[in-house]
Write a structure and sequence with these properties.
The complex is a heterodimer of chains A (209) and B (258).
Chain A: E1 3-10, E2 28-37, H1 47-60, E3 62-67, E4 79-83, E5 86-93, H2 96-99, E6 117-120, H3 131-137, H4 142-147, E7 154-160, E8 166-171, H5 174-190, E9 194-197, H6 200-208
Parallel strand pairs in A: 1-9
Antiparallel strand pairs in A: 1-2, 2-8, 3-5, 3-6, 4-5, 6-7, 7-8
Helix pairs in contact in A: 1-5
Chain B: H1 53-60, E1 66-67, E2 75-77, E3 91-96, E4 103-111, E5 116-124, H2 127-130, E6 136-137, H3 139-173, H4 177-205, H5 211-245
Antiparallel strand pairs in B: 1-2, 2-3, 3-4, 4-5, 5-6
Helix pairs in contact in B: 1-3, 1-4, 1-5, 3-4, 4-5
The chains are: A alpha+beta (209), B alpha+beta (258).
């Protein structure tokens, strides 16, 4: 019988998560982890976990992410952003089904830490972010770049951690942190997943146990 | 004193150092003149242009996608598809399709399963081909392969550039630059084709359950095929050029129709 759990760890400190310098210079970091039993053979986020996380994030705001599924010339509201080796466009959505694409886009591979999700207020237009800042969010020093995102209306940033096995949720306000964690817990329980808040040691233990 | 001789000086311009009998002076003497070359004796040297074939063919294995037959489009590569951070990927050897949707990669870093930093495999949608689940430790062989791939990726690019430079110089220095240019371009194209062909053959020979062996044989085949292709292509292009250069077409005389 399969069993899925989602677990979070507030204020991590360890460098092995590959989420840059911890704690971040501003905001609060929370690790989001998941585990399927039996363990899947493929890397990345299992589809049912991606669906629950997508529902949670879109329930609190608009989510903007890197996408190779659209091209700037084909519609409005896209920000063309070219960066070798693949064309990169930003997709902004409040639809959880659309957001699931973010976890399985080969041009912006989640499992190789090539993706970033920006959470902003749902009623607002997508955040205006320039190429330089977006690139910086994909590098090790992304915490510094995230600090400048509050001006364009971003309240949280989600980035994949080491090998895409976990995610780092950086919230820029206390309200955003509470809302994100509440939404994740709610959607986990609705999907009949186990939900827990763990210490960093216990978080690491959940993967190896 | 019996056997002794009066000390003398070793050359007029040298220091006045007394020497014993039996000691030979070590001094520069003018070399004997060589045979005079007469105009009639001058023979032309054989014109063998230098070639960048070997560095080019060896180096191109680091940049060419080496196909793996029977895997629905997977190929051996040393760089990832899709986005790569400025600091570079933590993986060095890839078996992936052209989009990167399916991949098996040799990675170094924190392994959440073992809770250690180790060499391990990460894979997505290639379990059917290789039978290796995500996060499988790669062991000592993996460490050697990781480091080899890491340095070969960069050394290969240097070799490609060196090969291109040597070939460019050979064109400039050639007595028939156009002929040499034809040889070089044909050599590059045939090297690419030979790499793909023999590399794919090598990869097919290795069993799919040993990706490291497959990479070694595939890359080795690519190098061998590349060298053979380069020199074969160059030789053929030279022959074609010589044939075309020495062939003249003369118009037939007009004759009235019967």
């Amino acid at each position: 019988m399969s069993r899925t759990s989602i677990f979070v760890c507030p204020e991590p400190r360890r460098p092995e998560w590959q989420l840059g310098a911890l704690p971040p210079p501003s905001g609060r970091m929370t690790l989001i982890g998941w585990r399927d039993e039996p363990a899947p053979v493929d890397s990345g986020v299992p589809p049912h976990v991606a669906a629950a996380v997508s529902r949670a994030l879109t329930s609190i705001g608009r989510v903007t992410f890197l996408s190779s599924a659209v091209h700037a010339a084909t519609g409005s509201g896209w920000w063309p952003l070219k960066r070798a080796p693949a064309p990169a466009e930003l997709m902004s959505t409040t639809d959880p089904q659309t957001l699931m694409q973010a976890f399985d886009d080969a041009a912006h591979p989640w499992s190789m830490q090539g993706q970033v999700l920006l959470i902003s207020a749902p009623a607002e237009a997508p955040p205006e972010i320039d190429r330089k800042h977006l690139r910086a969010l994909l590098e090790n020093e992304w915490g510094d770049a995230a600090d400048a995102l509050s001006a364009p209306g971003v309240i949280g940033v989600v980035r994949p951690g080491v090998d895409g096995d976990l995610a780092g949720l950086l919230t820029l306000t206390a309200d955003a942190e509470r809302a994100c964690l509440a939404a994740l817990e709610r959607e986990s329980r609705l999907a009949s997943f186990d939900w827990s808040v763990l210490t960093e040691e216990a978080f690491a233990e959940r993967y190896s146990g | 004193m019996a056997g002794s001789r009066t000390p003398t000086h070793a050359g007029a311009a040298q220091g006045h150092e007394p020497i014993d009998s039996g000691t030979s002076a070590l001094m520069a003497t003018p070399a004997p003149a060589g045979p005079r070359a007469h105009a009639a004796d001058v023979r032309p040297t054989i014109d063998i242009p230098m070639s960048g074939g070997i560095p080019y063919a060896v180096g191109q294995a680091s940049v060419v996608r080496i196909p793996i037959p029977g895997t629905s489009g997977l190929a051996i590569e040393f760089s990832p598809r899709g986005w790569t951070p400025k600091s570079g990927s933590t993986s060095t050897l890839f078996f992936q399709d052209v989009a990167g949707n399916r991949h098996l990669r040799l990675d170094y870093g924190y392994n959440v399963r073992t809770k250690t930093i180790d060499y391990h495999w990460n894979q997505k949608r290639t379990f059917g081909e290789f039978g290796i689940p995500d996060h499988t430790s790669a062991g000592t062989a993996g460490r050697v392969a990781y480091q080899t791939a890491k340095y070969f990726k960069y050394a290969g690019r240097v070799l490609v550039v060196a090969g291109v430079v040597i070939d460019a110089i050979s064109i400039v220095q050639a007595s028939k630059p156009l002929r040499r240019a034809s040889q070089v371009v044909a050599g590059w194209a045939a090297a690419w084709a030979g790499c793909k062909l023999v590399g794919a053959g090598g990869a097919a020979l290795a069993t799919p359950t040993t990706p490291l062996g497959m990479a070694a044989v595939g890359v080795g085949g690519c190098i061998i095929g590349g060298i053979g292709g380069y020199y074969g292509g160059s030789m053929l292009a030279g022959e074609v050029y010589d044939w075309a250069e020495g062939t003249f077409f003369t118009p037939l005389p007009e004759a009235t129709a019967p």
